[in-house]
């Protein structure tokens, strides 16, 4: 008899404030950032007996040092979860946390798990991107990829080449809007809701407390951004201002079978419809969200018009614009990253997937007329990842679409 | 009602004090603004950090206190600060006042200064107009513990350990507010427990949970996110969401009873010979009704008195010996020469042998084989060891897997061939030279040429035991003290033939057993027994001459030894004492009196001079009196004491001249660690110096002035 699949829900997500690399988290361990998140999740949900957590999946791109040693297991022990709770580590670079979520979700849907924790961390101060990488010489020798395909900023310039309609001006305008939206979201108390405070160690300054993201630059205007240099190409278009920076931070969320959530009285913030990952040319890794979204929508039997909320990771403004242009969505559409994005908040690589989900869950709550949403991101080495979600608080208005895959009618 | 120092006066005193301690390792006070959650506003978080790792804890000297004062000044001077909190570097809050400055203090004013400065700075946490907090994140001793008491609120980490007020253990009192603040916070009974009972019980300390259970902390949080949770809790105190209620201490009879109990404990532990606990109790009594600043002033004066006391100087000296010299034995050969010990043999299956076997098993976790003359004895010994392992498991000192592991490592035999692969064999057989020589000779036929042969003899010659062996160079003395599980000393005896590798192996093994080794030469009685038997011989001699037993036994009371001479005799057993006395008499000379009355006790199989009344007090029974033949020249207690201390002075001098140990510090270390002698004596040589015996009998001191005494 074939397996019966179960519905999977996103219960809740939390994150540490994000830091700028080399700054506030310089003397804080990456695994301790994760521990804080796990403990916060358990604290927020006393209705979940910790021994019911079936697995802990934590992602990081560079799994050595304080990001090594099978993070999901070490952080579970360090967080004080019962020893009976297992854990593992996972990696899909920028989409690490997203992949952690889709993996445990698959386990839940298969019936092997009831509840799991999924998340990610990247401490780019301690682990610069690509540090100690040993690139197979065939990549270059057989021209499998262009040499600069591993330099993310260069791939962003390549996207400007491919889509000349995406100008620097548009990229800067988008970036300024992201900063402004983050500023507003802080003013409205939206961002603070999902943050967990983290003790900051500093030999020189003594202990402190991180309670807000470090990277945002409120008041940034397109004019200011216009003056920045283009480090990836002379007279290029990609700057530090229209891209996410190098950051430190961690995220974690609770994913559960819907029937278990009901059993335990866990809140349901989003319901998983489907997900897809897809590959693209590494030279233009930023377009990855396009095929992964097409694939996911097709699986779900939906179109982009059925999507009422979009959280797209802002590794680079150009890559967001390429996606929006492809799907015919206006750059200023309030459906897209309404609370700002990675350009302002930062992008600690493997952690960002769950940050997108935290924002989408908030959007669902604020907009009960929205039935479907998606979280999507581009990934180094040329990939995209997309997860389609359904709003459990949907009030029946706003759309008539119904997904054909996964979600309950 | 004088309040504390402030302003220019405080600054001047700090400067003067700092000048007297130029090599202070300064604990910095690093201030950082923290945005408190729950909209509580901005807090200033001050971190105490001397810039070193956890092996060098924060401590407070004048400059460190000045930095803390400046940090508090800055924070409290702002009008945008909602709270002030203090915490420490990872694992450490603070280990108290910088004790290294004390040996140099030559006048009372210097001691008074440090007390007044501490009071002044810490008091600012109390007088602050915003809520103040100390987050006890780890080690907090003495002044570090007291810092927390001044704040309005305290949190403690569940993972913290080493929380204590050990001042009375060293010979001072909590003098930065502890004697007033602690009983007023948690009541006199609990405060006496922390200030008197714990320090006088081998310096017992509190864990985080115990600190919280006593009510010293208002909240306890797990170690994983202690600081985050503490700040969150502090924010809720600031907003009024959390209200801390503390019970009022009982200022009636309960307070007096607590102080009285404290005096009983002090009497039991030091018999009035150390002033510190009694002075602390005076302050605790005063705190029942006096106001805070009155008691602070009294703490100042008390500290000044005690810092200038010989008992404190001896205490610091002993503390330093136990912290440093005990961990690096003087005269030790290169550690690298030590050989691996993968299997241990114990010869003998009696009480001592099985105790040793259990110790080696627990600490080294290697196979241990025991043997004795017949199978029945062996089986009894093995059963005793298995029983002890089960007892440990029952008390949850070891887990079931560990118990299984240890059970599997024990074996018994009557065939010495089973010792062939032992790397270290210790004999604990009958205390007779011929028996031990035979054992070593027999063992040598089976064990490898480099296996260490160790003897637990307390008085026989190690060299004599090694004579005739093919490889005498691997024979060492390895003398434990009873009870083995408690007393940390091992006298490691180097005979003339013993080689460096065997000594190194013995020292490494002692360390692995978590014992403190002192290297001694192969002289009868080594250190501890030689000194103790000289003491006992003189006291017994006075009794033989006609001094009443009770008078003789009370003669040494001013020293405050852990037990009286004849109580010790009872503990050791007259037969053992007689045997050792005879050995020392034969080996070292007639000055080691072999009392005919002691012999009479042994022949009559009496357990000692005393019987005990139902209420626990000892008395000399008529039967014992009938056994004894005494003279008619009784001495007074003072005469007995004088005679004993003169004799011991001569004996210690002989030991040093014979190079039994390297220096007087080793004699003192042996007595502290092997006989449990108190810190206020500094072992024994500081006491003999301070009472004038060394100068009178030898014409010179044992230790230079200032090492364990107030410098001139």
What can you see in these coordinates?
The complex is a heterodimer of chains A (409) and B (712). Chain A has 409 residues and is an alpha+beta fold. Chain A is 31% helix and 19% strand. In chain A, strands 1, 2, 3, 4, 5, 8, 9, 10, 11 and 12 form a ten-stranded mixed β-sheet that branches. Chain A has a two-stranded antiparallel sheet with strand order 6-7. Chain A is globular, with a radius of gyration of 20 Å. Chain B has an eight-stranded mixed β-sheet, sandwiched between helices. Chain B has a six-stranded mixed β-sheet with strand order 1-2-3-5-7-10. In chain B, strands 4-6-8-9 form a four-stranded mixed β-sheet. Helices cover 48% and strands 13% of the residues of chain B. With 712 residues, chain B is an alpha/beta fold. In chain B, helix 10 runs antiparallel to helix 11 (276-286) and helix 20 packs antiparallel against helix 26. The longest helix of chain B has 21 residues, at 637-657. The chains are: A alpha+beta (409), B alpha/beta (712). The A-B interface holds A 35-36, 39, 78-80, 196-199, 201-209, 211-212 and B 30-35, 37, 45-47, 49, 51, 87, 90, 222, 224-225, 227-228, 231-232.
Notable features of this structure?
heterodimer, A: about 400 residues, alpha+beta, 12 strands, about 30% helix, globular, B: about 700 residues, alpha/beta, about 15% strand
């Amino acid at each position: 008899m074939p397996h019966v699949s179960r519905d999977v829900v996103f219960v809740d997500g939390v994150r540490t404030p994000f830091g700028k690399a080399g700054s506030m988290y310089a003397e804080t361990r990456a695994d301790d950032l994760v521990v804080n998140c796990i403990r916060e999740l358990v604290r927020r949900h006393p209705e979940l007996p910790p021994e019911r957590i079936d697995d802990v999946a934590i992602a990081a791109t560079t799994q050595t040092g304080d990001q090594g040693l099978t993070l999901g297991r070490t952080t579970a022990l360090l967080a004080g979860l019962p020893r009976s709770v297992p854990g593992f580590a996972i990696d899909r670079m920028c989409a690490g946390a997203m992949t952690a979520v889709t993996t445990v979700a698959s386990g839940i849907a298969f019936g092997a798990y009831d509840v799991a924790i999924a998340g990610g961390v990247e401490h780019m101060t301690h682990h610069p991107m690509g540090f100690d990488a040993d690139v197979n010489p065939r990549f270059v020798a057989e021209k499998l990829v262009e040499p600069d395909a591993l330099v993310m900023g260069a791939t962003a310039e390549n996207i400007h080449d491919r889509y000349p309609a995406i100008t620097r001006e548009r990229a800067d305008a988008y970036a300024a809007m992201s900063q402004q939206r983050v500023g507003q979201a802080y003013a409205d108390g939206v961002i603070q809701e999902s943050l967990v405070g983290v003790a900051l160690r500093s030999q020189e300054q003594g202990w402190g407390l991180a309670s807000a993201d470090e990277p945002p630059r409120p008041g940034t205007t397109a004019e200011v951004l216009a003056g920045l240099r283009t480090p990836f190409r002379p007279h290029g278009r990609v700057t530090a201002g229209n891209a996410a920076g190098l950051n430190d931070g961690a995220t974690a969320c609770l994913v559960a079978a819907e029937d278990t959530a009901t059993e335990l009285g866990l809140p349901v913030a989003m319901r998983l419809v489907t997900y897809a990952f897809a590959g693209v040319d590494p030279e233009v890794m930023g377009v990855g969200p396009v095929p992964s979204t097409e694939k996911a929508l097709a699986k779900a039997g939906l179109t982009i018009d059925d999507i009422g909320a979009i959280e797209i990771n802002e590794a680079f403004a150009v890559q967001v614009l390429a996606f929006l242009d492809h799907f015919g969505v206006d750059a200023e559409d309030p459906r897209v990253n309404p609370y700002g994005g990675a350009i302002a908040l930062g992008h600690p690589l493997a952690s960002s997937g769950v940050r997108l989900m935290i924002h989408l869950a908030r959007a669902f709550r604020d907009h009960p007329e929205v039935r479907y949403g998606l979280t999507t991101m581009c990934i180094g080495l040329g990939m995209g990842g997309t997860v389609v979600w359904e709003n459990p608080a949907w009030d029946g208005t706003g759309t008539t679409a119904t997904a054909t895959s996964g979600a309950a009618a | 009602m004088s309040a504390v120092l402030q302003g220019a006066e405080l600054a001047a005193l700090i400067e003067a004090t700092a000048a007297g301690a130029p090599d202070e390792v300064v604990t910095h006070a690093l201030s950082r603004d923290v945005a408190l959650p729950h909209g509580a506003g901005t807090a200033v978080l001050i971190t105490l950090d001397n810039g070193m790792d956890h092996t060098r804890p924060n401590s407070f000297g004048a400059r460190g206190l000045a930095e803390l004062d400046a940090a508090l000044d800055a924070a409290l001077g702002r009008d945008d600060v909602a709270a002030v909190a203090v915490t420490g570097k990872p694992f450490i809050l603070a280990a108290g006042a910088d004790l290294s400055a004390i040996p140099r203090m030559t006048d009372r004013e210097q001691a008074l200064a440090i007390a007044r400065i501490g009071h002044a700075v810490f008091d600012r946490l109390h007088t602050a107009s915003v809520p103040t907090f100390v987050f006890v994140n780890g080690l907090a001793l003495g002044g570090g513990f007291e810092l927390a008491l001044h704040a309005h609120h305290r949190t403690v980490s569940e993972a913290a350990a080493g929380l204590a007020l050990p001042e009375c253990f060293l010979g001072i009192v909590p003098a930065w507010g502890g004697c007033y603040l602690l009983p007023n916070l948690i009541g006199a009974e609990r405060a006496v427990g922390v200030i008197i009972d714990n320090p006088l019980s081998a310096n017992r300390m509190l864990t985080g949970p115990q600190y919280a259970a006593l009510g010293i902390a208002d909240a306890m949080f797990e170690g994983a996110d202690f600081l985050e949770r503490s700040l969150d809790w502090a924010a809720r105190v600031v907003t009024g969401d959390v209200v801390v209620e503390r019970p009022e201490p009982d200022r009636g009879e309960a307070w007096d009873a607590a102080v009285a109990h404290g005096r009983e404990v002090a009497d039991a532990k030091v018999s009035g010979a150390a002033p510190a606990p009694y002075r602390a109790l005076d302050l605790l009594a005063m705190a029942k009704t006096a106001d805070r600043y009155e008691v602070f002033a009294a703490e100042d004066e008390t500290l000044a008195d005690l810092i200038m006391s010989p008992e404190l100087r001896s205490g610091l000296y002993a503390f330093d010996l136990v912290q440093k010299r005990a961990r690096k034995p003087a005269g030790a050969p290169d550690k690298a020469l030590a050989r691996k010990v993968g299997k241990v043999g114990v010869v003998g299956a009696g009480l001592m042998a099985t105790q040793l076997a259990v110790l080696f098993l627990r600490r080294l976790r290697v196979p241990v084989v025991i043997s004795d003359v017949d199978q029945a004895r062996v089986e009894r010994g093995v059963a005793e060891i298995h029983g002890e392992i089960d007892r440990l498991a029952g008390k949850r000192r070891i887990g079931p897997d560990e118990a299984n592991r240890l059970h599997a490592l024990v074996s018994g035999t009557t065939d010495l061939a089973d010792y062939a692969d032992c790397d270290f064999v210790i004999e604990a057989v009958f205390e007779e030279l011929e028996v031990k020589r035979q054992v070593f000779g027999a063992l040598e036929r089976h064990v490898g040429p480099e296996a260490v042969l160790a003897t637990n003899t307390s008085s026989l010659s190690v060299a004599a035991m090694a004579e005739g062996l093919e490889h005498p160079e691997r024979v060492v003395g390895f003398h434990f003290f009873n009870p083995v599980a408690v007393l940390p000393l091992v006298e490691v005896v180097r005979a003339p033939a013993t080689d460096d590798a065997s000594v190194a192996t013995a020292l490494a093994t002692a360390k692995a057993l978590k014992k403190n080794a002192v290297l001694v030469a192969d002289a009868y009685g080594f250190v501890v027994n030689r000194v103790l038997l000289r003491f006992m011989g003189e006291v017994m001699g006075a009794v033989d001459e006609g001094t009443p037993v009770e008078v003789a036994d009370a003669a040494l009371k001013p020293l405050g030894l852990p037990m009286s001479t004849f109580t010790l005799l009872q503990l050791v057993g007259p037969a053992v004492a007689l045997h050792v006395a005879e050995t020392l008499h034969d080996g070292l000379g007639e000055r080691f009196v072999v009392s005919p009355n002691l012999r009479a006790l042994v022949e009559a199989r009496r357990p000692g001079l005393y019987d005990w009344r139902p209420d626990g007090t000892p008395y000399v029974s008529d039967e014992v009196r009938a056994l004894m033949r005494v003279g008619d020249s009784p001495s007074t207690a003072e005469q007995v004491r004088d005679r004993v201390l003169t004799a011991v002075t001569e004996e210690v001098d002989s030991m040093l001249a014979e190079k039994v140990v390297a220096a007087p510090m080793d004699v003192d270390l042996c007595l502290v660690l092997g006989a449990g002698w108190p810190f206020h004596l500094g072992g024994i040589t500081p006491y003999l110096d301070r009472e004038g015996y060394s100068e009178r009998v030898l014409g010179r001191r044992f230790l230079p002035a200032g090492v364990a005494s107030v410098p001139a």
